[in-house]
Amino acid sequence: MLILTRKLGENIRIGDKIRIIVLDIKGGQVKLGIDAPPNVAVHREEIYERIREENRRASGISAKAIREVAHIFHRGRPPSRASD
Amino acid sequence: MRAKMKIQSRQLGEIEVDEESIVKLPEGLVGFEDQKRFFLIRRDEYLPFHWLISAQDPDVGFAVVDPEIFLSEPYTVVLNEADRGDLDLQEGDPVHVLVIASPAENPGQITLNLKGPLLLNPRNRVIRQLLVYSSKLPLRQPIDTAAYWNPRVSEHRTQVRILGRKAA
Question: Could you tell me which residues are beta bridge partners of residue B161?
């Protein structure tokens, strides 16, 4: 892993399209600004991991489970809803 | 003429699909980045759910739904400039919100992932998964089958707020 030391206001460049700026350092927190092209996804790692795990779980859903929910949904569906 | 083909899906068995039902996910889904083309499949027996079955690996599949009908609260997704990315969304473009269903602890029950909604631009059939940081929106929202009996629910619409370019 490359390790760099930066001061407040200094930048890091990754390639020619990504720039990371140290905006603030307070207590145990560092505030970073990130300039990246729109097609580069930038996320806090913890939420990324949670969504990844949930996507993995979701891919295990069965057709039967969905059919049952759909069935309950249609059985109870009031006719007036059709006007939507 | 539509090009129809048969695929073998782990979840749905053998199904007939056609090219026109393809949706593109330039970034894949989180954790499934390699899967970039899916069939968006509508079958009466699963409605209001649709299925996203990977065209590259039909054993990868997800059940998706517009969450509105299962929620008693409005669901608003805020899309910032960076999120617009590959969707190529312009202000005023229609955009559909889908969320992914997960199996719940109890068999026969499911939850909806409101933290990782999928946005579909019907114009170019591109889907992007959004990561929502709001702590108010759960990763596992139990479905509220009573919600659609409540007439007030029809006033709620799943909303997408598209933030414009940087405010001056």
Answer: B78
Decide if B61 contacts A58 (C-beta within 8 A). Answer: no
DSSP B8-33: EETTTEEEEEEGGGEEE-TT-BTTBT
At residue B168, the pLDDT reads 32
pLDDT tens for residues A20-69? 999 999 999 999 999 988 767 788 888 899 999 999 999 999 999 999 88
CB contact under 8 A, A74 and B47: yes
Please list the alpha-helical segments (H only) found in chain A.
Answer: 45-58, 63-75
- In 3D, which of B80, B78, B76 has the Cα closest to residue B165? B80
- CB atoms B11 and A63 under 8 Å: yes
Selected for mutation to probe chain B from A69, A71, A84 (highest B CB count within 10 Å) is A69
3-state secondary structure at position B42: coil
Q: How many residues does chain A have?
A: 84
Residues of chain A positioned with their CB less than 8 A from the CB of B115: 47, 50-51, 54
The pTM is what?
0.80
Q: Does B107 touch chain A if contact means CB atoms closer than 8 Å?
A: yes
ipTM of the assembly?
0.85
- Burial class of B79 by CB neighbour count within 10 A (0 to 12, 13 to 18, 19+): buried
